[in-house]
Amino acid sequence: MAKITSASAPTQSPAKTVHSRMILRPRSTVTMKENAIAKRPKVVSVRKKPSKLDANKPKKPPTAFFYYLEDFRKGFQEQNPDVKSMRGVSKACGEKWKSMTYEEKVQYYDIATEKRAEFEKAMMDYVKKKNQTNVEIGETNVENVETNDENGETNVENGETNVENGETNVENGETNVENGETNDDYQQQWPFIKQSSLWATLESLESYKITPQKPHFTPLKERKEILREGFAIGYAVTFDDLVRRVKTLQLTDSTDIINNSLEVLVELESHGFDVQLVRDRLNALLTWKVNVGEFEEKLDNIKKDIEKCNLDKSVVEEEKRKYDQEIGELEAKIGELKEKVAQNAKTSSVKDEEIKKIQVDADRVSNQIVDWKIAFEKLAASPFTATSS
Q1: What CATH number matches the domain at 54-181, 1.10.30.10, 3.30.1330.60, 3.40.50.450, 3.20.20.390?
Q2: pLDDT at 82 over 70
Q3: Does the global pTM surpass 0.85?
């Protein structure tokens, strides 16, 4: 009996050694879980790859310029049938758009604003519906995994007692890790285990104090499990960076920066971030920027009008100078003419005196002629007398 006992002892020592290694060897809970799952029957799951283009995703509406382009193109092609390329039409439309006033553009701005609001509403509905679908798919996958785990555990109980004990330790370790690292209930719903030390740094940032966040990261279920926490940290860093950039926006920055930020907020919102406060700020800044841009355009048009008026004024002043010069020349000629008239009047007066003198002489000569005529007739009518010898 002693020999049997001594012979049976070595057969039990390896099992105890293996068991002690599984329990006492310092390993991460993730490694222990992988080793435990590796012993289970593999379950092959066929997942349908998501299509690259989602036909249900709302399309981003165009800007006000493109709504104007639709109206411009019809009339332009009728007037210019030789221009058939879209590039030529767009170039002509761009030049016309630059020369238009705000009053002429406002109807297209209104259309673009209305379409943008419809797009944002449709995008929010789309994201909510997609998140709901992802949650349902996630719950179904969890149920399937739990079923497979139960089957695997049954196989382990029947065939591998040591692995079952190891799994129990792993499950207990995971529970302790979850209880120790998770402070909020909402984080228990994350599709990954919160392990990175970066979370403490992120949660201490000012942006997270201003707008406390409770993201769910549900869409990350579509990613590989090993990558999920990295993506989640990336989204968290993006949110903080976006809040910082909003605070440093300048009026001279491009409108595309605000529009791109609004699109990023839609993505963050689909992961459970509360972005309403930031969205309201961006929309308000965008409205102010559009208003300032419109008033700057008005100011440019006013400056152009002032330049045109100054040009017209210079032309008028030049014409006035010419008229004043002509008036001066006419006044000089009038003065000369007045002098000539005065000289003529003086000459006329002299001539009148000369005429008077001549008339006196004419009257004297006429009287002499009369006297000589009477003497002539008297002599002719007198009788003849003999002259003494």
Answers
A1: 1.10.30.10
A2: yes
A3: no
